[in-house]
Structure prediction request, 388 residues.
Amino acid sequence: LNRRLAEFGTTIFAEMSALAARTGAINLGQGFPDTDGPEEVREAAVRALRDGRGNQYPPGPGVPELRAAVAAHQERRYGLSFDPDTEVLVTAGATEAIAASLLALLEPGDEVVALEPYYDSYAAAIAMAGGTRVPVTLRPHTTDEGPVFRLDLDELRDAVTDRTRLLLLNTPHNPTGTVLTRAELAAIAELAVERDLLVVTDEVYEHLVFDTAEHIPLATFPGMRERTVTIGSAGKTFSFTGWKVGWVTAAPALVTAVRSAKQYLTYVASGPFQYAIAEALALPESYFGAYREDMRAKRDLLAAGLAEAGFGVFRPAGTYFVTTDIRPLGESDGFAFCRGLPERAGVVGVPNAVFYDHRDAGAPYVRFAFCKRIPVLEEAVGRLKALA
Ligand code: PMP
Ligand code: GLN
Prediction:
């Protein structure tokens, strides 16, 4: 492994899913649903396969049906209009969209300001692009609704230097469940305009926001439409994480740049699934509402269970993850805790420290995924209560 990638061995998700498989523990580590997405969307993929749509290389930017569906979704939900031909790019999942964006937009040595903890592929993709990551740490705060992680806007401002090329954002945020507010996003937008920064914003959990939280795409703020690369994924929204269909929406020059990098990574994304996701994006609002409601109920179950089991619980406003504090259990090292948890309780979680450069800041936090069937979550909670 070369020096750029030396620090990135096996991803924590592979390590923890292997641990779950080896020990037979309930896997609340890697974030994937244990129920597949809508039957009609699966049928659409089967039809595409049978009818020979997408069995050979689809067009580089994505099949026209999916690009049109992505544009229609952004328009319908957010009032953002994108030209499907010049402003939408289909990728092999959000992971490729992130990598291609950074490879296309960074010069070696450029600084990328990213919220910490960050999804693990960010650090590796920044490194592959020859950039330097500058983490801004989300800090725990106590609120009327309980503890949450919040962005300190002054810290964000201070992190921007003359070498900063772009901000890499993620809202709703994995792993903390934080959803950036309108005021926070407005301040980020002002900063980006003032310092002439590009923003790559990972909005793969856009449909998973709960209670009073609202997902507002950064691209809707003044001055942002032309400097923002927005990333979405069918994996999260339709519970088909194995299909690896993602997309980018941005101004033509940015999409052209990202497409240049994407061409030499995968050339194109999987054909038949693109047709199926085009149909999925056109599902009625009732699908999205029911999905959100289902996940909210699961969040409530797991969050309450973890609290009863003695964890400190950061109630997530979005995503399908709960971040916990293990110090009330008399523990302080999330790594050691997660490595021992299958043996002690038959459950797998992920130590948040892997998502930090400032490992100490993340040491006592552990993430559990709630995108699992209710009986599975109930069983996991029962086992975790035995820890106390
Ligand atoms: N970004 C975030 C914040 C994620 O949590 C994930 C998946 N866990 C991805 C990107 C990757 O998405 P995909 O599977 O579409 O590549
Ligand atoms: N995004 C998922 C998570 O955060 C996992 C994705 C992966 O395994 N790379 O758990």
